[in-house]
């Protein structure tokens, strides 16, 4: 007896729309002008849209039109001992102003990227993220990866001259400065005495002897402002002037326990979760201040925080409780020199047992 023949149902054709029937050049030009937060929705419309929003041609057109925006990418470890996975802050478009308790924004896992080393250094240059060193499978790494945030793919680059983890790393004039860090499997011991410089144009490394400042100490945080690198250890804060190759101790800067900071218009910001305030350091005035206008607008009982500056005059503040919160804050200097902040939105963006290791702003 013969088996019954199964008739395969034809898939219904994808719905057509006037825009999808346009010539390719006009089609790309229109989509390039659409804010990137709508791309996840567009990718569900049709295969043509899905292919376009992931293509380099679209981002080349956006760049040509001057339609660029900064997006936040976040390095997350489940328990601070496992590999890094990358998430991006997805802004959900909404016609209505969200209510205070609504979750219109979220961190979305980028599944196409492989796990990255723990305690690596992460810096953004244009539309790319450089990942340098770190610990993987309990081995210290000298590897360097380049993440293309347009296609969400990663590729290896030339290894660092020395394997380190937990370095302070900043980019100035297209060169990435990797300073200190642990060169053994113990992250709190044997800090490296080297300074490595990576030229992003030639993709070559330069190994330099580090000047004799805070030798053998572990660096905790750093930012770049005005062509200088500001660094903090447990014991001191320093300002490294690259032009003069000079590093000086700054006691005023070290009067606060600043870390996980960001820079907006040459002012450094960090969230003091003990003082429950956003602090600002002005390097020209060499003074600290508290950002006003934020009382009662941010979640309390936070255990940890980090910041990233993006979209001109704004910063993203991530706060760790039992879940991860994010607040977008616009900052401005008013008459008299006071700095005020305005909370644009504040949401829970990720639940569960996760820990943010770092975050960077990427231009797309």
From TrEMBL:
Any Pfam family the entry gives: F-box
CDD domains per the UniProt record, alphabetical: F-box_AtAFR-like (cd22152)
Ranges of residues in domain F-box: 16-62
Region (Disordered): 1-20
Name this protein carries in UniProt: F-box domain-containing protein
């Amino acid at each position: 007896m013969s088996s019954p023949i199964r008739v395969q149902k034809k898939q219904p054709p994808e719905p057509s729309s006037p825009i999808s029937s346009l010539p390719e050049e006009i089609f790309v030009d229109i989509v390039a002008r659409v804010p990137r937060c709508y791309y996840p929705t567009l990718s569900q419309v049709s295969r043509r849209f899905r292919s376009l929003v992931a293509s380099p041609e679209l981002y080349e057109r956006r760049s040509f039109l001057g339609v660029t925006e900064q997006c936040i990418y976040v390095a997350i470890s489940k328990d601070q001992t496992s590999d890094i996975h990358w998430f991006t802050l997805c802004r959900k478009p909404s016609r209505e102003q969200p209510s205070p308790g609504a979750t219109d924004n979220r961190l979305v896992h980028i599944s196409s990227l492989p796990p990255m080393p723990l305690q690596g250094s992460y810096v953004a240059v244009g539309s790319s993220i450089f990942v340098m060193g770190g610990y993987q499978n309990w081995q210290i790494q000298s590897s360097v990866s380049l993440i293309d945030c347009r296609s969400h793919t990663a590729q290896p680059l030339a290894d660092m001259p020395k394997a380190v983890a937990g370095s302070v790393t900043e980019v100035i004039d297209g060169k990435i400065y990797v300073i200190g860090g642990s060169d053994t499997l113990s992250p709190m011991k044997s800090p490296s005495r080297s300074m490595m410089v990576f030229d992003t144009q030639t993709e070559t490394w330069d190994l330099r002897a580090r000047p004799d400042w805070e030798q053998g100490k572990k660096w905790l945080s750093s930012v770049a402002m005005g062509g200088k690198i500001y660094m903090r250890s447990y014991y001191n804060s320093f300002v490294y002037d690259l032009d003069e190759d000079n590093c000086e101790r700054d006691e005023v800067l070290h009067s606060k326990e600043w870390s996980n900071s960001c820079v907006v218009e040459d002012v450094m910001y960090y969230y003091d979760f003990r003082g429950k305030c956003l602090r600002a350091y002005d390097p020209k005035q060499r003074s600290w201040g508290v950002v006003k206008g934020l009382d009662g607008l941010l979640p309390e009982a936070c255990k940890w925080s980090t910041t990233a500056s993006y979209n001109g005059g704004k910063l993203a503040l991530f706060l760790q409780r039992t879940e991860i919160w994010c607040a977008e804050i616009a900052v401005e200097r008013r008459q008299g020199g006071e700095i005020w902040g305005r909370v644009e939105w504040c949401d829970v963006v990720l639940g569960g047992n996760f820990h943010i290791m770092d975050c960077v702003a990427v231009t797309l």
